[in-house]
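Reader question, answered in our methods column.
A reader sent in the components of a multi-part assembly and asked whether the whole thing could be modeled at once rather than chain by chain. We filled in our standard form and ran it. Here is what they sent:
COMPLEX SIZE: two components
ENTRIES:
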Amino acid sequence: MVKKLFSFFLALSLAIPNLSLAANVKVGFINSITGPEAPIGENLTNGVTLALEDLAKKGIKVELIKEDDTGKPQISMSAMEKLATRDNIAGVVGPYTSACANAVAKLAEKYKVPLLVPAAAKEEITRQGFKWVFRMNAPADVYASSLIDAALTLGKPKSIAFIYENTDFGTSTTKSAKEYVAKKGIRIVADESYSKGSPDYRSTLSKIKATNPDLVFMVSYVADAILLMRQAREMGLQPQAFLGGGAGFTTVQFAKEKEISNYVLSCTQWTDDVNWPGAKDFGTRYKAKFGKEPTYHAACAYESMMIMAETAAKAAGDREKTRAALKAGKWNGIMGEVKFSDYAGFTNQNNHQMLVQQIQDGKYETVFPKQFATKKAIYPFPKWK
Amino acid sequence: MTVFLQSLISGILIGGVYALIGIGLTIIFGVMRVINFAHGDIMMIGMYLTYNLFTLAGIDPFVSILVTIPLMFLFGGFLQKLFINRVLGALPQNQILLTIGLGLIMSNTMMLIYTSDYKIISTSYSSSSISVAGISVSEPLAISFIITAAITAMLYWFLIKTDTGQAIRATAQDREAAQLMGINVKRMSIIAFGLGASLAGTAGALISPTYYIFPQIGSTFTLKAFVITVLGGMGSIVGATLGGVVIGIAESVSAVYISSGWKDVVVFVLFLLVLLFKPSGLMGKSRM
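And here is the structure of the entire assembly that came back:
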């Protein structure tokens, strides 16, 4: 009985991908569907689901072959090998995490498969001169530079203090930020790393307060972001702007703590109030279908799938033609203008414009760059009440 | 100078809460000779209790200790009666395994109920402070320090003046002799564990307006409580009070003058130095 059931499911699992044989383009999608990155992976899957709906409206039927990499590079690599050699896809969108995307990029180059990375931040991915690897989102160094650019446009900060958690994420983000401010002639007056989870950052903050910095740049996860801002308020740390360079400053939970989160600047790849064509519409559709706010991951995945499927369909599934069309093409959609170009050591990198958002009255509002802004930025940071 | 005073005051205030955790652990060790590795997890339960009282019933975290203390006392007594009493004569490693196991059960149960998301209590005073001569004193921490001091004073009074307190101290000094004198040592153990648990729970409640809550938070505080108790001298209540404040100050001052990434190193170096020159801890000899 068990054997029978097993063979039935096996047959079923083999049959399912073949159900949509009528499709006229085959695209692979590698994502973290299970594993520790699954909560974010879900956003990418949702974005792709919406993309398939829109492609069908345009008359492009996509046979999507989904592969789960569980967030592990080696599984991601075998998924890519399967897609490239057995499934004979025209192109691949994914994977989500930086580690996976970097591993898969080398295989894309080897098998000559167009790969479009939607939302992995590691700079190296598009810095290896690969011809077949394209990236939608802005790489990690832009996070820091766009925030600092925003501050430089809004005011004239002369000094900056860094406070960040002593993990890979914290130190690497801060490192690119430090290099950037050095170029811009802003003095670094404090450089404090902390170990995550201590109940008391007051002494570190009082040390920073004594240096009287114009900007405070912080990199933390959710809980520490709230704690740091609370204690900064307690200590009366009063810079011209608080810059949140990391995950913890761009969550709804953080924004809800109005007393301490108001007027904090942070950056993101995408917001649903930006005036890029279709962005608002995408936001409302997403909320209606999935019952939650779309993240930038969803938007990146949506646009990547749209571009990849359309290009591959036009090239009739030919990989070389698809690659050439990706390289030459230009799009304008929910991610703004997309063009894969070579600059500053990057190849096939979309020079994506990061958006700087500010929390105003408990909501994220896009404030920089000016042409995409929905609200005026409040600068300098108002006095603590 | 302001920066130094600032870090000193922050250290003393946070040290008060540490002391409360340490005292709980030291009472349990003193009476039972059992190291309670579930101490941090008991504190975590106290935090979730406070969180629920605050979000569901709207009870202020500082007021909620009136509920937390008796509930945690019963919880601790229950643990002692059901589990710890059975292993009192067992090998130390078995006792350790039991308490670690209890801690794991607690943290995983809480994870099933509340998921591993961070919970934050936001009160009107969560980020307010009083400024005294250029030094800002965190309001919630100052209140919790006052409560800690009051509780510690009451505990001293209880242990020194009351009959039950004296019986607990007698049990701590010599279990068998106390039993021969007609003291119900099993009951004293239950009271002692209950006290320890309610102190840990109270510490959890007091720290929750300024900190965040998640199921795995316990291990950090178990380690801290252990360091505090050993530093002060195992079983000594004065030692644990002193140890808590010393650790608080060491963390805070080293975060300013070295780096906050290094403060744990400073704490453990200090800890090793004390053990090297005074192996029984700061107050090792005088056991209350």
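What stands out: Chain A has two domains: 17-138+275-350, 141-268+355-372. The first strand of chain A starts at residue 25 and ends at 31.
Send us your own complexes using the same form.
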